[in-house]
Write a structure and sequence with these properties.
This protein is an alpha/beta fold. It is built from eight helices and 14 strands. The strands form four sheets. Strands 5-4-1-12-13-14 form a six-stranded parallel β-sheet. Helix 4 crosses helix 5.
């Protein structure tokens, strides 16, 4: 058995570690349970996520983290040649795309193969949205790639819009269907399954998002456990989606694991 974990809302919330999260990772490593952190975060590259986790006392490395940006680079390798990519995502995350030529303001939009949209947060404004729209309307018909389709996330000041609303605005305006490289897309979970090298029915997804983490994982053939932290709200359980398990917090995972896998780890 193996476990996929969401990060934000499960192990930490903003800059605050969730109680018991450090001990759970220690338990995973002691029991040698295969695991992978999968996140729709597009505001940080993997090395920054490793550093953030280390600041909480959670030790891991980039090979244990899968992000939409990494999944997108795999798609680019297989689907574009030498044309440029237009990146609408934080500068720090652009490090994941350094092997590809990048579009800059003033460049010919017909040289662009893909418009890649991540979580720009408060950097979004009309000018930035219109730049992305103009490129998508070029005669070269670039692919619109979404680094996840999460609608919102839990910040220290409450819920905030995530990447999906901006992707859908561009999709509607340009008449282009976006290619989702993050949760809940089946392709993203397929990438995670490939990385962790285990059959889907032997993998459990643990997250706080009833749609991206629970429904998305179940559609990909995984079991899914919902944690009642992060963006979880009581009405999540009234959406017609039934988790395979419900935990108050990630810290309850070891006990749940022992009860449900007595002969395993």
């Amino acid at each position: 058995m193996a476990i996929l974990f969401d990060l934000d809302g499960v192990f930490y919330q903003a800059n605050q570690v969730i109680d018991g999260a450090v001990e759970v990772v220690d338990w995973l490593q002691q029991k040698n349970i295969p695991h992978l952190f999968i996140t729709n975060t597009s505001s940080r590259p993997r090395n920054a996520l490793v550093a953030k986790l280390a600041g909480f006392g959670i030790n891991t490395d980039e090979t244990h983290i899968l992000t939409p940006a990494v999944a997108a680079t795999h798609w680019l390798k297989n689907n574009i040649a030498s044309r440029k990519v237009a990146l609408f995502l934080p500068e720090a995350t652009q490090i994941e795309f350094t092997e590809y030529p990048m579009w800059c303001v003033g460049d010919d939009p017909d040289k662009v193969a893909a418009v890649i949209v991540g979580d720009l947060g408060e950097q979004w404004d009309f000018s930035v949205m219109n730049q992305a729209f103009k490129i998508l309307m070029a005669e070269s018909h670039p692919q619109l790639i979404a680094l996840g389709m999460t609608r919102y996330w839990q910040a220290s000041d409450g819920l905030r819009l995530d990447v999906a609303p901006f992707v859908m605005a561009l999709s509607h305006a340009a008449g282009i269907k976006p290619l989702n490289m993050g949760k809940p897309a089946k392709s993203f979970y397929a990438a995670a399954i490939n990385v962790i090298a285990e059959n889907a029915d032997k993998i459990i997804m643990l997250g706080d998002d009833i749609y991206s983490d629970i429904a998305g994982a179940q559609k990909a053939g995984l079991k899914a456990v919902l944690v009642q932290t992060g963006k979880y709200r009581d009405n999540d359980l009234q959406q017609g989606i039934q988790p395979d398990g419900i935990l108050h917090s990630v810290k309850d995972l070891p006990e749940w694991w022992r009860e449900n896998h007595p002969a395993g780890h």
